[in-house]
Design brief:
Number of strands: 9
CATH architecture of the largest domain: Sandwich
Number of helices: 1
CATH class of the largest domain: Mainly Beta
Radius of gyration: 58 Å
Largest sheet: 5 strands, antiparallel
Structural class: alpha+beta
Number of domains: 2
Length: 245
């Protein structure tokens, strides 16, 4: 049996209109929009960055001014501190100088008073008996341990223009290791004197370690006639020097 014939296919055609100008315009518009968007973002970023840079510059300027001010204030305070320290040092030095001058003046005043009293006793010896006298004994601390400096003054009252000659001995009385002991000043050598009105005898003495002094006995023995020997015992008293408290 013969096959029936196939139906004939109907061919359809689609007609499209191609407009190259329109396509180019669309592409140009898209590209333009992209460019404008990019340019806008660029300008926005530039403005934002410029704003931040300006703010940073203002902050830097403000901080720089603050730093300059603080540095200037620091220099001023350092100058003020140096001035105050210098003023304090000068004031302290001036006070020390005044204190030393005052102590020296007081010591000199005391010495002059003693000199005045001494000369008065020589010029007006009416209350003193004629003859050889042990006027005074002063002790001052020396440089070393147990070392002392002494000043002994002898006077001659109404000596009728005679010269007093002789020897004087100083003996320190005290205790050593709990027992009575003595120290002869100058050893066996006595102090020589020769004067018409008065004479100062000075020297140094050294006490042995552990010796406790209590008094000093002074004996003046003249070698001329009509003058009698004299003796006086002074309590151990060391005079304070200028600057000592």
């Amino acid at each position: 049996m013969p096959l029936p014939p196939r139906p004939a296919h109907k061919v359809r055609y689609r007609i499209e209109h191609h407009d190259p100008v329109r396509k180019i315009l669309i592409q140009a518009v898209v590209i333009g929009l992209v460019v404008l968007l990019g340019w806008g973002l660029f300008r926005l970023g530039f403005r934002l960055s410029g704003f931040e840079e300006l703010a940073a510059e203002k902050q830097i300027h403000s901080l720089s001014e603050r730093v300059d001010f603080l540095e200037g204030e620091n220099r001023r305070l350092n100058r003020e501190l140096a001035y105050q320290r210098q003023s304090a040092a000068i004031e302290h030095k001036a006070l020390d100088e005044v204190r030393r001058a005052l102590e020296t003046a007081e010591a000199e005043n005391l010495r002059l008073k003693e000199e005045l009293s001494f000369y008065r006793s020589i010029v007006s010896p009416s209350a003193m008996r004629p003859g050889l006298h042990i006027q005074s004994l002063q002790l001052e601390k020396g440089a070393g341990k147990g070392e002392y400096h002494y000043r002994l003054v002898l006077t001659l009252v109404r000596g009728n223009n005679r010269v007093a000659k002789g020897r004087a001995r100083l003996t320190v009385l005290g205790t050593h290791q709990g027992r009575p002991a003595t120290v002869e000043v100058g050893g066996s050598e006595a102090l020589k004197f020769s004067f018409r009105y008065f004479q100062r005898l000075e020297g140094d003495l050294k006490l042995p370690e552990g010796f406790e002094p209590h008094a000093v006995r002074v004996v003046a023995t003249p070698s001329v006639k009509r003058l009698e020997a004299t003796e006086h015992e002074f309590p151990w008293q060391v005079s304070k020097q200028a600057g000592e408290s």
